[in-house]
Design goal:
25% strand; five-stranded mixed beta sheet; alpha/beta; D-Maltodextrin-Binding Protein, domain 2; six-stranded mixed beta sheet
Length: 269
């Protein structure tokens, strides 16, 4: 049985809920964890395929295979990848970085490379925005704690919005990547196609359930899942992913640009 990992953020819940509802048809050993932990577990051989931060896939694109059709992406404002700053960017001396993701760090370095001081101190922290901003000049916050976050007097940058304003392209936050030896066949691809489709159809129900679990307003959750997150990995998302890859190579964040090799050819599905 293949071992699949998926992160536990709100944006993955429509897919997770659908996979659980499929019961025996799925025939997957599903592991849930943070994006960074899933990337490490995939690299260590503990998972056959997993939803991982985009930067982690790009770093290993010569040995990992891209799963077709599914991603966590956004086009313009997303609300869950935020740089929260107490001061203008050029005045920052310290930044607390959410320790659960790595793509957002790379994106921040790309977007604001000319504004941030080369002497800026980056410190990995648990995702507690109040504590992060109490101890440091700014905080890079991702995922659920960022959703709806506000702080009087703070300057808040939505990194997905900043990316879109500069490039006009979607930003792909996470992809599903498979180890080269993992046997990804038509049945597995179909499972995720159905999970995505069913998840999108039941977003209102998922938002209602999440509102009870998290205490967040149902309307906020519905808007986020329905209007902010894109679950496809089509031509538009791949174009944005390719540009991000090129910029990361140019900035020295990854060593080399590898072509995207798919775990299963979509045209054969």
């Amino acid at each position: 049985m293949l071992k699949f990992g998926i992160h536990d953020f709100i944006n993955a819940q429509p897919i997770i809920a659908s996979l659980k509802e499929m019961h025996d048809w799925v025939k997957l050993d599903i592991y849930i964890g943070s994006p960074a932990h899933l990337a490490d577990k995939l690299n260590d051989g503990g998972l056959d395929f997993a939803m991982i931060p985009t930067i982690e896939y790009l770093r290993k694109a010569d040995s990992l295979r891209l799963f077709p059709g599914v991603s966590i992406a956004s086009k313009n404002k997303v609300g869950t990848v935020l740089l929260i700053s107490k001061y203008p960017l050029s005045a920052l001396k310290t930044i607390a970085v959410d320790n659960r993701s790595r793509t957002s760090v790379a994106l921040l370095r790309l977007l604001f490379k000319d504004e941030l001081s080369p002497d800026l101190k980056w410190v990995e922290c648990d995702p507690d925005p109040d504590k992060m901003l109490q101890e440091y000049d700014s905080a890079l916050l991702i995922g659920d704690p960022a959703l709806g976050f506000k702080k009087e007097g703070a300057i808040i940058y939505d990194l997905s919005e900043e990316w879109f304003q500069r490039t006009g392209k979607p930003f792909v936050h996470a992809v599903i990547a498979a180890r080269a030896e993992a046997q990804i066949d038509a049945r597995i691809v179909e499972i995720f196609r159905v999970a995505k489709q069913e998840g999108l159809m039941k977003i209102a129900t998922t938002a209602r359930t999440l509102a009870r679990q998290t205490g967040l307003p149902e309307i906020t959750l519905l808007d986020y899942l329905q209007n902010k997150i894109r679950y496809n990995l089509g031509a538009e998302e791949l174009d944005g992913l390719s540009l991000f890859q090129s910029l990361c190579v140019s900035a020295g964040l990854i060593e080399k640009k590898f072509p995207f090799d798919f775990a299963y050819k979509e045209e054969t599905v």
